[in-house]
Design goal:
eight-stranded mixed beta sheet, alpha/beta, disordered N terminus, globular
Length: 236
């Protein structure tokens, strides 16, 4: 059973404690103007969330291609492709109406990742600091540059291949799990298993963390500027 993240992290939003030059104005969800593209994104999300739940509960039979993770495959299958960065940011500001739905935390990050991975844009902003729940798996198989304003949940940058992810808040367990390359920066606190099964890349922890992961075969991890893992070898 998934532990309550609040028992392992202080989930107060650290965004307001960042340096003034790092602050970004918070846009309230009601200020987002809906359009045809946003409607398609929301419709795909709702359908994917429904299918995710049905598959999880063994009520929906889908043939998953070999080598695909079923949770991401469902998200990718329901997400419209080649969405612009601005519209993905706007979609992140519409998530409040969905956060009380079952599987919100586990599915939403995969859906955001599917939108980002198929987009032609390179730089993305996801705003979460108005939400009461965290979003897991942001930056799954990432190759782009993503900035998260607010907290993130489990598995930031899972199977990340390139690019950068910056979280201006706290992150949950398994930051950089199965990370293959790229750079992750957590400006708040991080949970257990940082860099678990990490193969390459860099992780920068500017707050506290609970533990390093196992089976780290490559890459570097820094804690408050100090190198604590070099080329997969722990220095502490």
């Amino acid at each position: 059973m998934k532990p309550n993240l609040e028992t392992t992290l202080k989930l107060n939003d650290l965004f307001g404690k960042l340096d003034p030059e790092k602050r970004v104005e918070i846009i309230k969800p009601k200020e987002v103007k809906r359009n045809e593209t946003l409607d398609r994104i929301v419709e795909g999300y709702e359908k994917g969330l429904e299918n995710y739940g049905l598959y999880e509960e063994d009520k929906l039979k889908i043939e998953i291609p070999e080598g695909e993770y079923w949770y991401y495959y469902i998200a990718k299958s329901s997400a419209p492709s080649e969405i612009q960065s601005k519209e993905i940011t706007e979609f992140s500001l519409l998530l409040e109406e969905h956060e009380n739905k079952k599987y919100f935390e586990n599915f939403t990050g995969y859906y955001l990742s599917a939108l980002i991975n198929s987009s032609r844009d390179k730089d993305f902003k996801i705003i979460t600091n108005y939400l009461t729940k965290t979003i897991d798996w942001i930056g799954y198989e990432n190759t782009k540059n993503i900035v998260v304003t607010g907290n993130a949940g489990w598995g930031v940058g899972n199977r990340m291949e390139d690019g950068e992810i910056t979280v201006n808040g706290n992150a949950g367990w398994w930051v950089g799990w199965n990370m293959k390359d790229g750079k992750i920066t957590i400006n708040g606190n991080a949970g257990y298993g940082v860099g678990n099964r990490m193969e390459d890349g860099e992780i920068h922890l500017n707050g506290d963390y609970e533990s390093l992961g196992g089976y780290i075969s490559g890459g570097n991890i820094y804690h408050k500027g100090k190198l604590i893992v070099r080329d997969g070898r722990r220095l502490i």
